[in-house]
Write a structure and sequence with these properties.
alpha+beta; Rossmann fold; Immunoglobulin-like; 4 domains; five-stranded antiparallel sheet; 14 helices; about 25% strand; globular
């Protein structure tokens, strides 16, 4: 398996070796040129029209050469990370050669990294001690279901067993998943660098999923607008707020060494997450004293907060707000800043003008600024004392409206949709001539039928109670399902993952059991599963990845952790550790654990791999 550092594209715009889904002629799809421009390349000799859509330049046409390779050179652009995709005959597709992608409920983008010529960027992966990233499940009583979160632990967390840490809860934006502040915002690397330089306090960072109702069975839509904005803003804030303060905080404080008081808790986020974070924090100033808003604003009607400035100011160590003047939320964010000023609420305000508006380039910049202040009362107080008034109104500020939301987040088709023992796959491709569904559980692709609205669909009755990889083939081009938030973390083309709600390891069906942790150790380049017990594990299972898998695959697609959690909860197996293939068996020759090995390459499908793992666990 490739080194994790190379997978994260540190020094150049890395692109993985072509997979079977791509001809071998093209090995790199992006090249960062010396003059700051970027050359994009995409191989598809059958396409009629291809464009590249990248955040620093918008959508631009590409030209095809005699070998069927489409090319465009754009820029120059400042060093940073930029989302991009190819638009092939009207359908957006991820770059099949780029390992990095943007985790999102809807759109599917790859990530381009333009390195700095001199100096370094805040999010660079440097030769410093790195913390760990843990994926956790927890049962939420407020949701009556299982929710997800990611937890960052600082580099010395395991070496100093007595030290306790402050906690920063960091929420991402509308349609983003809990992975975004890790894989796009790079909070772990930014904080690793700052801690190594002595510029930030050691802390635990928790990344909640800001749209947890999406994980649960469908419920009637709230009246009054889109959840998270407009009339639906209050509803979503309460749901997320109850989950964070009533369930997630309890989980974190019972599973990690935390300092559990308001002086050592912070909360914030980007876009919708900023609204949620401020709303939760201001309503719970007995629990949080550090509040951060990145490209956002929140309600101006919170009892006891804005009408009692002296009391509010005495409870907040840091009230930090940042926004780009070219952001579509700038007008609303500026108005909120002015509201704080008029009511005598102290705050720090930061504006940018060069990061393309409502973007994760801004989110990373703001994060770097605030991590230096969190849980440092002296530095925070100095920043608050020097806080400037809100910018004067010009009358030209962009204002957020319902029309803005409808344009940015148009209504999507539902795919896959499960009902009555069947599953329906859909894709909106009105210009396509032929669309097929390809899956590891189908002996051959099946054709979809086009509706009058340009939406293609097919309904299957077999293999609907499992977990498997699939994609659409649109006029010969492989496309991940645009409306499915679950992507297989493959090295090359990234398939969508179908999680049938009735599969034996559906996390919601598992309910209120004890869940283990999956840790991605960035120092050792290895993924580990730790069981939810204090008993010493009696076995270690080495999970060898397949040719196109990454260290995430056995857990994201294979569900290895959930299989072990379920069988352990049922008393059918013994506690074990699981580890991807970074270590050889000899490393554990002196350990008390017996070592077993399962190779993905010995099995054709993930269903067969899961069956092999289950059989092994039952034999322990």
């Amino acid at each position: 398996m490739k080194n994790f550092r190379s997978l994260m594209c540190v020094a150049v715009c890395l692109c993985a070796t072509a997979t079977l889904a791509q001809p071998a002629k093209l090995e790199k799809s992006t090249v960062c040129n010396a003059d700051g421009t970027v050359t994009f390349r995409y191989e598809n000799p059958n396409a009629k029209d291809v464009q590249v859509d990248v955040q620093f330049a918008g959508r631009n046409p590409m030209r095809k050469d005699a070998n069927g390779i489409w090319t465009a050179t754009l820029g120059p652009a400042a060093p940073d990370m930029y989302p991009y995709c190819f638009v092939v005959d009207g359908v957006s597709v991820m770059d099949p050669l780029c390992p990095q992608f943007f985790p999102n409920e809807g759109f599917k983008n790859s990530l381009l990294e333009i390195p700095a010529k001199s100096g370094s960027l805040a999010h660079d992966i440097k030769n410093v001690p790195h913390g760990k990233v843990e994926y956790v499940h927890y049962y939420s009583n407020s949701l009556k279901g299982v929710n997800n979160a990611i937890v960052y632990l600082p580099p010395k967390y395991d070496s100093d067993k007595n030290k306790k840490y402050p906690v920063f809860y960091l929420l991402s934006g509308t349609t983003d998943t809990e992975e975004v502040y890790y894989k796009v915002g790079r909070v772990n690397y930014i904080l690793d660098n700052l801690i190594a330089e002595g510029k930030a306090e050691e802390m635990i960072v928790v990344l909640p999923y800001g749209n947890p109702t999406k994980l649960l069975p469908p419920a009637p839509a709230p009246a009054g607008g889109f959840g998270g904005f407009g009339g639906g803003m209050g509803m979503m804030r309460d749901v997320v707020g109850d989950d964070i303060t009533g369930d997630l905080m309890n989980y974190v404080e019972n599973h990690y060494r935390t300092i559990n008081d308001r002086d050592h808790r912070g909360i914030g986020g980007f876009s919708r997450g900023g609204n949620q974070g401020l709303g939760i924090g201001l309503r719970n100033l007995d629990k949080f004293s550090y509040l951060c808003s990145y490209s956002s604003f929140t309600s101006t009607d919170i009892p006891g907060v804005y009408d009692n400035a002296a009391d509010t100011n005495s409870k907040i160590h840091l009230f930090w707000l940042g926004v780009g003047t070219d952001d579509f939320l700038f007008g609303n964010a500026r108005d909120y800043m002015e509201h704080l000023d008029k009511n005598g609420i102290r705050s720090v305000k930061e504006y940018t003008h060069d990061k393309y508006g409502h973007t994760w380039m801004n989110a990373k910049y703001f994060l770097d600024k605030t991590l230096r202040l969190l849980f440092n009362p002296t530095a925070s107080e100095e920043a608050m004392k020097n806080g400037k008034p809100a910018l004067e109104r010009t009358g030209q500020e962009q204002q957020f409206t319902g029309a803005t939301m409808a344009r940015l987040f148009p209504r999507q088709v539902t795919s896959p949709e499960y009902a009555d023992g069947k599953v329906t796959f859909r894709i909106n491709a009105p210009e396509a001539k032929n669309v097929q569904l390809e899956s590891e559980l189908l002996s051959s692709p099946v054709s979809l039928t086009k509706g009058d609205d340009g939406v293609w669909s097919v309904t299957l009755t077999n293999n609907v109670d499992d977990v498997y990889k699939y994609c659409f083939v649109v006029d010969g081009t492989k496309v991940a399902d645009p409306t499915n938030m679950y992507l297989s973390p493959d090295k090359g083309f990234k398939y969508s993952i179908a999680y049938a709600p009735n599969n034996p390891y559906d996390v919601q069906k598992l309910g209120n059991i004890k869940f283990g942790k999956v840790t991605y150790d960035l120092n050792l380049n290895v993924a580990n599963y730790f069981p939810p017990t204090t008993d010493e594990p009696k076995a270690l299972i080495r999970l060898i990845t397949g040719k196109e898998d990454t260290m995430e695959s056995w857990f994201k697609v294979g569900g290895a952790n959930l299989i072990a959690d379920k069988l352990l909860a049922e008393g059918k197996t013994k506690p074990c550790m699981m580890m991807t293939d970074a270590f050889a068996e000899g490393n554990f020759s002196n350990a008390k654990m017996k070592v077993y090995t399962i190779k993905a390459s010995d099995y054709k499908t993930w269903k067969e791999r899961r069956a092999a793992l289950e059989k092994l666990l039952l034999s322990l």
